[in-house]
Amino acid sequence: MPTLPATRLAGHLFTFITVAIWSVAFVGNKVLLSHITPIEVMLYRFSLAWGLMLLVAPLKGVIRSIREELYFLLLGFLGIFVYFLLENYALRYTQAANVGLYMGAIPILTALLAHFTVRNERFRLPLLLGFVVALAGMGMILFEGRHFELRLRGDLLALAAASVFALYSVLLKRAPAGYSPMLITRKSFFYAIILMLLWQFFRDEPMHWQALTLPVVALNLLFLGLFASGVAFFFWQRGIEIIGPVAAGNYIYLVPLLTALTGVVILHEKLTPVMIIGGVLILLGLYLSQRRYPASGTEKL
């Protein structure tokens, strides 16, 4: 596989593409949950992604050390298995807007964790200011026409999901030397799939095989598996490798804005003044978060 560029601009581009794909994927995930269970969505999409990566970069040098495999197991456990379970169950107990707002805490949580664990990733005032501004914009978009309603169980699950993904992003910087982003992603997916199979086995929930014959299910699974899981997670790993977890995490602020724009373009939803103002605030918050924050591709742990 050809080596992808490692310039600072490329790192930001990889991260932006990832967030753009995830913004569209949120809609596809909601469609699938009306036909199959959360664990089925996870199992199908990540199995597809793992199979794609296996075709692109055939298996070789499977295991170098048990310690390194435990690291990949931890990545798969936190960033894939636990995160998506928490997010999907949060959607059961609270409204989607609440979940989206709590996902906006990922950048600030990532910055706090990185401050104590990653050299040259110091928490700075622009990060906090950008977080406040961007969160205000996210709230305007997510809660337009509706009220924020605290639903403790679902909201706590959503906040836990945000915390887990922040930890996952920071841990990506601790990847053992000699592994490509493709191999790191594929190995973590493999262990996540094993965990999903174990979850499915012990819960003994029925599999909705017949749903796979529905075009809407098959097409959404293909998109989520090949792009939202395969391409996106690979690009996320590559982006963090180049610009660091904090700078990459700030792009999460764009998810509600890009999701709303997707609805306008694809679903012909109405673009309102509140959405425009919220979008401007999100972009301003992202700018403030990145301002005076150097690229961290050369930092050491």
Task: Indicate the topology.
Blueprint: H1 8-32, H2 38-56, H3 66-93, H4 96-103, H5 106-117, H6 125-142, H7 152-171, H8 181-203, H9 215-243, H10 245-249, H11 254-266, H12 273-290
Helix pairs in contact: 1-9, 1-11, 2-8, 2-9, 3-7, 3-8, 4-6, 4-7, 5-7, 6-12, 8-9
Would you mind describing this structure in some detail?
With 301 residues, the protein is mainly alpha-helical. Helix content is 72%, strand content 0%. It has one domain (8-290). It has helices at 8-32, 38-56, 66-93, 96-103, 106-117, 125-142, 152-171, 181-203, 215-243, 245-249, 254-266, 273-290. Helix 1 (8-32) packs across helix 11 (254-266) and helix 4 (96-103) packs parallel to helix 7 (152-171). The protein is globular, with a radius of gyration of 19 Å. The two termini are 28 Å apart.
